[in-house]
Design a protein that fits this description.
This protein is an alpha+beta fold. The chain has two domains: 5-81 and 197-215, 3-Layer(aba) Sandwich (Glutaredoxin), CATH 3.40.30; 86-194, Glutathione S-transferase Yfyf (Class Pi), Chain A, domain 2 (Up-down Bundle). 53% of the residues lie in helices and 7% in strands. The protein has nine helices and five strands; from the N terminus they run βαβαββαααααααβ. It has helices at residues 13-25, 41-46, 66-76, 90-115, 125-145, 156-171, 173-177, 182-192, 195-200; strands at residues 5-8, 30-33, 54-56, 62-63, 214-215. The chain has a five-stranded mixed beta sheet with strand order 4-3-1-2-5. A hairpin with a 5-residue loop joins strand 3 (54-56) and strand 4 (62-63). Helix 4 runs antiparallel to helix 5, helix 5 (125-145) crosses helix 8 (182-192) and helix 6 crosses helix 8 (182-192). The protein starts with a strand and ends with a strand. Bound molecules: glutathione.
Length: 216
């Protein structure tokens, strides 16, 4: 039997969150590393959105949203109960979903402008950073109460948000390290130092149409 196929891009934060959940769940997939400037025709056929990550299931079904790929993987196997906040009732679930939605929405938009401030000359980078910081402050507050966003162990929201905070911190690491976001910095460093994170950041050369991708 062949494995499901994952179209992925190493540095894409959406693809990173999908790979984190897939690897953690122990689900085997065939990984096809995509060059975003030269997307393979089979990816474009599978999903008109033309974004990564995209998961192609054995039954032919396509999942082309990273959060849905995470939920699919966790539905296969969730050994440390990453979905515990999801199953802890309405409030916890809504809080987690809201935190993730704000990450993917306003935070991601401010993050991109902060990262590529030269393309948005209306304001200096620090202006965009200040916009992104309203979200980081929210995380900081939660991470001062608990080691992870929703308790003493990492879960779905931590892993969904981690790749984006990593980018935020990396834009100006010295500034981030000397900022007041100490609990967020500790959370970030802890998660980045895990074997799981290292495993999903392995480098692969771009997949070529008609060949078999790497076993992931
Ligand atoms: N909502 C999508 C967003 C995925 C997304 O925007 N991925 C970026 C890469 S990080 C992409 O593929 N962009 C298309 C392009 O650059 O051509 C998801 O969560 O999967």
């Amino acid at each position: 039997m062949t494995n499901p196929v994952l179209y992925s891009f190493r540095r894409c934060p959406y693809a990173i969150r999908a790979r984190l959940a897939i690897r953690y769940s122990g689900t085997r997939v065939e990984l096809r590393e995509v060059a975003l400037r030269n997307k393979p025709p089979s990816l474009l056929r599978a999903s008109a959105k033309a974004t990564v990550p995209v998961l192609l299931q054995n039954n032919g079904k396509v999942i082309d949203e990273s959060l849905d790929i995470m939920l699919w993987a966790l539905g296969q196997h969730d050994p440390a109960d990453w979905l515990r906040a999801e199953s802890a009732g309405h409030n916890a679930r809504n809080n987690a979903r809201n935190l993730i939605a704000t990450c993917d929405g306003p935070f991601k938009q401010a993050l991109d402008r902060y990262k590529y401030a030269d393309r948005h000359p209306q304001h200096p980078a620090t202006w965009y950073r200040a916009q992104a910081e309203s979200y980081v402050r929210r995380l900081e507050w939660q991470l001062q109460q608990n080691q992870y966003l929703f308790g003493s162990k990492p879960g779905y929201a931590d892993m969904a948000i981690l790749p984006f905070i990593r980018q935020f911190a990396m834009v100006d690491r010295d500034w981030f390290d000397s900022s007041a976001y100490t609990a967020t910095g500790r959370w970030l460093d802890q998660l980045l130092a895990t074997p799981l994170f290292a495993a999903v950041m392995q480098k692969y050369s771009p997949w070529e149409e008609g060949t078999i991708g790497v076993a992931f």
